[in-house]
Specification:
This protein is mainly α. About 80% of the residues lie in helices and about 0% in strands. The longest helix has about 30 residues. It is globular and about 55 Å long.
Length: about 160
């Protein structure tokens, strides 16, 4: 329940953050592409991935206290290993293929390309992101439903 509420809260925050994004894009003269209509699809995929990870991590964190700390470190590492604040060519030129191992890269790409580049994500990137989201959601839901009866006793 808390994982779903957390994802819903994130979606509401995303909706509110689109207002300043649109204002900044207007101010800077960034074009609005027809590919923006793909954005809701990307958000659904990203929300499914996030919910799956949230269910998995929250279930494990109840039984293993250190999971929360390890998750925080992992998220920070993934932020710096994902080309969000730098172009992906910087990493690909020195370490070919490393970006492809990062699951967050695909989630970022299906959002970034339609908004900033005016292109739909290629079929490979979209397929990988959907498969990762489905796998995370199935795994997270499976672990959560298996442990749901024990959660109350360990909290």
């Amino acid at each position: 329940v808390f994982a779903v509420a957390s994802i819903a809260n994130g979606l509401v925050n995303l909706g509110f953050s689109l207002v300043p994004l649109l204002a900044i894009m207007l101010f800077l003269g960034q074009p609005f592409y027809v590919t923006w209509w793909f954005f809701p699809v990307a958000v659904v995929v990203l929300a499914a991935f996030s919910l799956g990870v949230a269910l998995l991590v929250s279930s494990l964190a109840v039984f293993f206290v250190d999971v929360r700390d390890m998750y925080t470190l992992l998220i920070q590492a993934l932020f710096f290993l994902t080309p969000i604040i730098y172009p992906k060519e910087i990493v690909e030129s020195r370490f070919p293929g490393v970006i492809a191992l990062n699951p967050v890269y695909y989630m970022i790409e299906i959002v970034r390309r339609p908004i900033y580049e005016g292109q739909l994500p290629d079929a490979r990137t979209f397929t990988i992101s959907v498969v990762l989201a489905a796998a995370a959601l199935v795994l997270g839901a499976w672990v959560f439903t298996r442990k749901v009866d024990e959660l109350a006793y360990h909290i």
